[in-house]
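User:
Can I borrow your eye for a moment on a structure tokenisation matter? Would you put together a sequence-and-structure record for a protein of your own picking? Please set it down just below, with no commentary around it:
AI:
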Amino acid sequence: MKFIRKNNFNGLEILVATESDFSFPIHYHETICLTLIYEGIEHAKFSSKIMNATAGRITVLAPFISHSNPYSKADIVSFATFYIDYDVLKYFNNGNPVLFDYVSFEDEYLFSTLTRCIELP
């Protein structure tokens, strides 16, 4: 797993994990977490509910949502998570709040565009 900061994007932080089986205990983030699933299945547990997202999907988690990511040795997942300040999303929504907890969707164009952001120097 590697953690990178993109200086060309005002210090955007990105976590990149390749073939990981690392479990994350209960935690939250002060930022929006936008995750690209490259391989395997992402497991996100909220209280007693588990949401699964397969390769090719994008997941978005709102700030301050307590969750864990339980994996076993049989679970291998490769992903990239962008940690985005909530004000950025609010800006693109004309200054209006954006209300959600967790969403998962497919968008090939967005997926490939964000992947190229990771590969920039």
User: Anything to note?
Assistant: Helices lie at 86-92, 108-119. The beta strands are 2-6, 12-20, 24-27, 32-39, 41-46, 49-54, 58-61, 67-69, 77-84, 102-105.
